[in-house]
Design goal:
- The complex is a heterodimer of chains A (113) and B (110).
- With 113 residues, chain A is mainly β.
- Chain A is 0% helix and 52% strand.
- Chain A starts with a strand and ends with a strand.
- In chain B, strands 2, 4, 5, 9, 10 and 11 form a six-stranded mixed β-sheet that branches. In chain B, strands 1-3-8-7-6 form a five-stranded antiparallel β-sheet, with no helix packed on it.
- Classes of the chains: A mainly beta (113), B mainly beta (110).
- Chains A and B meet through β5, β9 and β10 of A and β5 and β10 of B.
Chain lengths: 113, 110
């Protein structure tokens, strides 16, 4: 299985600011995914991050709002830009494991005031 | 657009009882996942079902997949309090990323 860490684990931010979330995996993986889980809701895929190419965004998510970096096979960042209270969510990264499952990081709990 | 529907969304059951959570999805997929999420925690992988007729069991939980009916079930046998959590099914969308159901919030009471 893959061990995934995320930083920060939680943060409280002011409206209009930006936050960068880091995701580190203990092994090399081809694809990393970023999901959002709004309060009391299910998970929604934001984008797929591939090393060496632009991230692929899902409908309703744009690069200007959620820029993603993937500098190598073990690391990715997601930035939440120009935040508003509606961005308050848990942000999770995940990776495709070798045993046909997807593993999730512990999540970053973001509150925007 | 792939849709994943779970029911029920909320389930309160007594310890010792049996119950089934259903997961329907709208288009063909070869992989279906079940996850557990405890309050304030991330997702824990329970099962990955890879083929029609697949059945997997772990403790008091058993998951099955019928790809022809586009239906997966998560059966709970003799529920105990420790099973209280939210259970998500998820379907492989594009060969890698997942489309999640809304989750079933399970509360097991004495």
């Amino acid at each position: 299985s893959a061990v995934i860490s995320q930083k920060p684990s939680r943060d409280i931010c002011q409206r209009g600011t930006s936050l960068t979330i880091q995701c580190q995996v203990d092994s090399q993986v081809t694809m990393m995914f970023w999901y959002r889980q709004q309060p009391g809701q299910s998970l929604t895929l934001i984008a797929t991050a591939n090393q060496g190419s632009e991230a692929t965004y899902e409908s309703g998510f744009v690069i200007d709002k959620f820029p993603i970096s993937r500098p190598n096979l073990t690391f990715s960042t997601l930035t939440v830009s120009n935040m508003s209270p509606e961005d308050s969510s848990i942000y999770l990264c995940s990776v495709d494991g070798n045993t046909d499952t997807q593993y999730f990081g512990p999540g970053t709990r973001l509150t925007v005031l | 657009e792939l849709k994943v529907e779970q029911n029920p969304l909320f389930l309160s059951m007594q310890e010792g009882k049996n119950y089934t959570i259903y997961c329907n999805y709208s288009t063909t997929s070869d992989r279906l996942y079940w996850y557990r999420q405890d309050p304030g925690k991330s997702l824990e992988s329970l099962f990955v079902l890879l083929s029609n007729g697949a059945v997997k069991q772990e403790g008091r939980l058993m998951a099955s997949l019928d790809t022809k009916a586009r239906l997966s079930t998560l059966h709970i046998t003799a529920a105990v309090h420790d099973l209280s959590a939210t259970y998500f099914c998820a379907v492989d969308m594009t060969g890698y990323a997942l489309n999640f159901g809304k989750g079933t919030s399970l509360l097991v009471t004495p």
